[in-house]
Amino acid sequence: MIQYCLVTYDLEMVKKAIDYYPVNCFAMNPSIAVNDLKGKSITFLEASKKYRQIIGKEMPLYIEVMGDTAEEMIEDARRIVREVPGNTLVKIPATEAGLIAIKKLRSEGISSSCTAIFDLNQALLASEAGAVCVAVYVSRLDKSGYDGMAVVKEISKAFKQRGIKTLICAASLKTSKDVERAILSGAQNVTVDLHMLEDMMAHSITTR
Question: Considering the entire predicted model, what is its pTM?
């Protein structure tokens, strides 16, 4: 099954996406929160709690930690899963400190997605550390002169060869065509917004 992961802090967008589309995963990060919560008197975690109320306890919800050191990431992750109970996972960056945090949190039963993955080596190390998902930032790779989809495909091939069950997420996608390419490259989780979902469903021949 493909996970269509809605990335937004706009709660009205969340409600509409649930009503119309088979969205089965949700994620957020601080930079998106800054834009979506601008001018609203609500904190990052308060909005996360409302998010959980809308989507229910069983739906996967990925929330990014904001610490820099392993200790800060671990404490932040503990607070997130404590204050936003349910099927809540934490997003941790692909750094040395991140690997330490992922291993420690795994021993405590807290699931992590390793984000900002840019090559196969990072994905393999994150998987061995205990990450349940590795998120490849496709558009950032493309902007840096690399082929983001080729990296997704390489990770998918290696994981299949080694029998690795860690999910591969194609993140920072920009268009509905990016979603198609990511899935064909082996991604099991793709990040989307409401506009992308609407564009995926629209076709001029169907309309006629």
Answer: 0.93
Q: What is the dihedral of CA 97, 100, 106, 109, to 10 degrees?
A: -70
pLDDT on residue 82: 96
pLDDT band at 176 (very low <50, low <70, confident <90, very high): very high
38 is an active site residue: no
Q: At 192, which amino acid appears?
A: V
181 contact partners, CB below 8 Å, separation of at least 6: 149
Alpha-carbon gap, residue 123 to 104, rounded angstroms: 18
Q: Which of 38, 40, 91, 177 is catalytic?
A: 91
Label the pairing between strands 167-171 and 133-137: parallel
The single-letter code of the amino acid at 39 is: G
Q: Residue 10 class from Cβ within 10 Å (0-12 exposed, 13-18 middle, 19+ buried)? A: middle
How far from chain centre, in Å, is Cα 203? 27
Q: Is 184 exposed, middle or buried (0-12, 13-18, 19+ CB in 10 A)?
A: exposed
C-alpha span between 133 and 18 (Å, rounded): 23
Which string of b and e fits 143-164 if b means at least 16 CB within 10 Å?
Answer: eeeeebbebbbbbbeebeeeeb
d(CA 111, CA 63): 11
- How confident is the model over 113-163, as pLDDT tens digits? 999 999 999 999 999 999 999 999 999 999 999 999 999 999 999 999 999
Q: Are 192 and 170 in contact (CB under 8 A)?
A: no
